[in-house]
Amino acid sequence: MAEGETTLEYTPTWVVAAVCSVVVLISLAVERVLYYTDKYLKKKTQKPVFEALQKIKQELLLGLIALLLTTFQDRLGKICITEKQGSQWLPCKKQDMSTSTTAPRYCSEGKVPLLSAIAWHHLHIFIFVLAAVHATFCVLTILFAKAKMSQWKRWEDSIKSDYHPEEVLKMKVIAVHDHDFIRSRVLGFGRNSDFIGWLFAFLKQFYGSVSKEDYLTMRHGFVQTHCRGNPKFNFHKYMIRALAADFKSVVGISWYLWIFVVIFLLLNVWGWHSYFWIAFIPLILLLAVGTKLEHVITQLANEVAEKHIAIEGDLVVQPSDDQFWFHRPRLILFLIHIILFQNSFQLAYFFWLWYQYSFDSCIMGKVGYIIPRLIIGAFIQFVCSYSTFPLYAIVTQMGSSFKKAIFEEHIQEGLIGWARSAKRNKPLRRVDPKEACVTVNESSVEVGTTGEIEPELPLRSPK
Q: What do you get for the CA distance between the two ends of the chain, in Å?
């Protein structure tokens, strides 16, 4: 570090937040331009140009970042602010300016540079560390979630081995309260109390979050609602495909997440301990999401128990968006995205400070605030990976609609091609419906037994 240069420890947080905001806005603007260029090329069927853009997209973004780093480093040192402005909202307690401020090379007397070269260098290292840690933790989350869901595969396999069409004609009438799903979710001490019901849901997310009875009942409800003509539909395989598709959304860093980064950098003022208090935001969200998902399963059981005394054959729950916050199951994924990013941010910030300024640095804070923060971060990562994310994967299938992952990838491509051909009044192509459901509500198409996709009105392309 050059003599007299100011590090981020003594750089005003409002300066760091402002500079970070400008960099993020420019990066997001370029990313949007590339995104809409992709869409335009797809729409115009410019496949060679589209493929070329895909190959150079990462190079364009990396080149932009390198250009921003060089440009900002030269220009920020020439922007001057008063010494009073430069001594407000500091991450560390103010020290002797002779050792903590940058020599005013371009600034007149009584003024200091907006951001030193070394502080800018440390800031872009932090942005890189944040992206790397978030990607790593997201990969760990999906791996743990799939490990948990792999335990459910044996329940799916048991359905195929135990399924006998002739037994369907010999279904027995069974009292609702004799079903294991109802007994475990509805019956028992205090279950008719809303408070006890929510408390049960809160505790349930930490142990046996999804039992065999839960899985089989929700699977049966999904199949009866969306795949009645295919009772041997592979529900487990569908969930894995849907989870993989959702993972693409979770691993990204959206604009609203960058807003959180900027706010945190702004509030990271000496004596506020904001890094400690903000750690409770993902923790509270995680517990709320897990509790809600468990409560949805309980509500499905309550609906059946309230409407029926006895049921012929297997118990069938009715999937509905009404069970979810604002009738939007997709909102759960949005909250999980925030939880994972905020937790990644907290841990990335700790590791970056440790590497850049050492554990004893004033910007790191007191040990009494550091240890609880690390424990909370580890707890969030484990529970979200092994409990909440698998819960999300199965419970959000209890919404009114389903995802395009219900089709195999080649069938999805066939549907999209069919929709585009239909818009251009071209002959429809045939697709293989072996793994598909009979009725496709979400995409407003119906798969016939011949394999031809027949349109329903109004005509819409699959989402």
A: 53
